[in-house]
C-alpha cells in the first residue's frame, strides 16, 4: 500500500538529513521488514547507524517530470510521453532490534535539482524530496507501516553544495553528531515538511545499480605551489578517497583532470575548462576520518590535493555490468585496444544509461548510443541496462508527435531536438537497439513495446 507521503527539508537546503525513529518491543514476531524508498535526486540511507547497501547514486536517472518549465538553450515545444521515478527495496529485518530503531537518510541533488551547468540549460524539477515506506509483517500476515510522515525529523547537514558537474563542498563541522544513530541529540531537528508527490509513475528499480567496482592506488608525480599531483595511470569515472588530517577549520581541496599541461599541472579543458572544474572541498572538524564525494563522480586520470590529507585510493564507479568476453593475441596494440574499450564503455555507464562522456555532459545521447550498442552487447552483459534505457527512450518521446529526442532521459544536450518534431535527431535508436537486442538473443520481454 503506497501512500506516497513525500517530504522535504528547508527551501534553501540542497542536502537535508532525515531520521525516523520507531520502537519495537521485540523483533522475533516479524517475518519480514521491507523498505521501499525513493530520494530525489540521490539518496544514501542508514539503519541504526549502519549503511547496509553498497549501491551508489541511487536511484537511476529517469525522465522525472515536465521539462517545459526548465531553462533550456533551445525551445522545448512538446511534453514527454511518460514521467517516471524509481524506488528501491531492501530487507531490513536482520538490522532491526528491540527498542529504538532509526532509519536515517541523506539527500542530494542528483539529476533532479541541477542548478549549475555550462551547457544545455538548467534542469530543476523541484527541491530534493523523500518518500519511504517500511512494511513490517508478522507470522499471521498482519502488517504495520513506518512512513515518511511528520514524525520524520530533518536537519541541515554538512554537505553545503553538491553538483554532478562541479563537485561538492562539505563542512564537517556542521554534521550533527551521531545523526544516524538511536539516542542522538535532537536539538535543532524539526518535523519534515510534506510536499506534493511528483506527477510521475513510481516504479521499483530492477536495473543494475551503480557501485564501487574497483580501487586504484595512485602515485605521486609532482608538486606545484603546495599542491600534490597524482596519477591513477588510467582514465576513470569515480572519486578520490582521502584521510582527513586537518585541524578544525582547515580546508582540503581536490581537483580532477584527464590530462596534464606542459608544465606538469592539471589541464582541465576536456571536462569543460575553468568554467566547469571538477573539484571537491572539505572543511575539517579536527577529527581523522575518511572522506570522498557522496553524490557525484568525476572523469579523470590525474588529480591534485591541497591541504592536510593523505590519499588512500581512487574508486572506480559505474553501473554494475559484467564483462562477458575476453581477448588476447600476439599484438600488444590490439590487446590494449580491447582493454581500453572495456574501461571506456564501463566508465560511461551511470544511472543505467550509456553516456557520451563521464564528465563534460554525461547524457544518454541516442546517436552515440547507436554507435556503441552493438559492441557493448557483444562484449558485456548489457541486457538489463539496455532494457532500462529502451524504456527511457520510449518515455522521452513527444506526447503529440512521437518525436524521439537526442538524449534519453531527456535532459538537454548539444545539437538540439529538431524543429517541432520534424528533425530526424537520433530517432533511429528506437528500431536499432531493438534489432540488436533481437540479434543478441535477449528475451522477449525486452521487445514487448515493439
Automatic annotation (TrEMBL):
Pfam families given in the database record: Bac_rhamnosid, Bac_rhamnosid6H, Bac_rhamnosid_N
A GO molecular function held by the record: hydrolase activity
Segments forming domain Bacterial alpha-L-rhamnosidase N-terminal: 29-212
InterPro entries: 6hp_glycosidase-like_sf, Alpha_rhamnosid, Bac_rhamnosid6H, Bac_rhamnosid_N, Rhamnosid_concanavalin
A biological process term (GO) from this entry: carbohydrate metabolic process
Keyword Coiled coil: no
Keywords: Hydrolase
Alpha-L-rhamnosidase concanavalin-like domain mapped to chain residues: 225-308
Domain Alpha-L-rhamnosidase six-hairpin glycosidase: start-end pairs: 324-415
Highest taxon of source: Bacteria
PANTHER family noted in UniProt: ALPHA-RHAMNOSIDASE (EUROFUNG) (PTHR33307), ALPHA-RHAMNOSIDASE (EUROFUNG)-RELATED (PTHR33307:SF6)
Name under which the protein is recorded: Family 78 glycoside hydrolase catalytic domain
Source organism per UniProt: Gallintestinimicrobium propionicum
Amino acid at each position: 500500500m503506497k501512500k506516497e507521503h513525500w517530504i522535504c527539508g528547508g527551501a534553501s537546503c540542497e542536502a537535508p538529513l532525515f531520521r525516523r525513529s520507531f520502537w519495537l518491543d521485540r523483533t522475533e514476531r516479524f517475518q519480514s521488514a521491507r523498505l521501499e524508498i525513493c530520494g530525489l535526486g540521490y539518496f544514501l540511507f542508514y539503519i541504526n547507524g549502519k549503511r547496509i547497501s553498497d549501491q551508489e547514486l541511487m536511484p537511476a536517472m529517469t525522465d522525472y517530470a515536465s521539462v517545459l518549465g526548465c531553462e533550456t538553450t533551445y525551445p522545448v515545444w512538446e511534453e514527454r510521453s511518460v514521467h517516471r521515478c524509481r524506488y528501491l527495496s531492501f530487507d531490513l529485518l536482520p538490522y532491526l532490534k528491540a527498542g529504538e530503531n532509526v532509519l536515517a537518510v541523506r539527500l542530494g541533488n542528483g539529476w533532479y535539482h541541477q542548478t549549475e551547468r555550462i551547457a544545455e540549460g538548467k534542469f530543476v524539477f523541484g527541491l530534493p524530496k523523500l518518500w519511504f515506506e517500511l512494511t513490517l509483517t508478522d507470522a499471521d500476515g498482519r502488517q504495520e507501516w513506518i512512513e515518511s510522515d511528520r514524525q520524520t525529523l530533518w536537519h541541515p547537514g554538512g554537505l553545503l553544495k553538491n553538483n554532478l558537474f562541479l563537485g561538492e563542498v562539505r563542512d564537517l563541522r556542521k554534521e550533527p553528531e551521531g545523526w544516524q544513530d538511536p539516542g542522538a541529540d535532537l536539538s535543532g531537528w524539526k518535523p519534515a515538511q510534506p510536499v506534493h508527490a511528483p506527477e510521475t509513475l513510481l516504479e521499483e528499480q530492477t536495473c543494475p545499480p551503480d557501485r564501487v567496482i574497483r580501487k586504484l592506488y595512485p602515485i605521486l608525480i609532482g608538486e606545484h605551489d603546495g599542491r600534490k599531483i597524482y596519477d591513477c595511470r588510467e582514465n576513470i569515472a569515480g572519486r578520490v578517497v582521502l584521510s582527513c588530517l586537518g585541524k578544525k577549520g582547515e580546508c582540503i581541496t581536490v581537483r580532477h583532470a584527464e590530462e596534464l599541461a606542459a608544465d606538469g599541472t592539471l589541464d582541465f579543458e576536456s571536462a569543460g575548462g575553468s568554467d566547469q572544474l571538477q573539484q571537491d572541498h572539505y572543511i575539517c572538524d579536527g577529527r581523522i576520518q575518511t572522506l570522498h564525494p557522496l553524490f557525484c563522480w568525476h572523469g579523470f586520470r590525474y588529480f591534485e590535493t591541497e591541504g592536510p590529507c593523505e590519499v588512500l585510493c581512487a574508486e572506480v564507479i559505474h553501473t554494475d555490468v559484467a564483462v562477458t568476453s575476453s581477448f588476447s593475441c600476439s599484438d600488444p596494440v590490439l590487446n590494449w585496444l580491447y582493454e581500453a574499450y572495456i574501461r571506456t564503455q564501463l566508465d560511461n555507464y551511470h544511472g543505467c544509461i550509456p553516456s557520451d562522456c563521464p564528465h563534460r555532459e554525461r547524457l544518454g545521447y541516442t546517436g552515440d548510443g547507436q554507435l556503441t550498442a552493438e559492441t557493448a552487447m557483444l562484449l558485456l552483459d548489457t541486457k538489463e541496462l539496455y532494457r532500462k534505457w529502451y524504456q527511457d527512450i520510449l518515455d522521452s518521446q513527444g506526447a503529440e508527435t512521437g518525436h524521439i529526442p537526442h538524449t534519453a532521459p531527456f535532459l538537454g544536450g548539444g545539437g538540439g531536438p529538431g524543429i517541432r518534431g520534424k528533425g530526424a535527431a537520433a530517432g533511429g535508436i528506437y528500431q536499432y537497439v531493438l534489432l540488436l537486442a533481437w540479434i543478441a538473443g535477449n528475451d522477449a520481454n525486452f521487445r514487448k513495446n515493439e
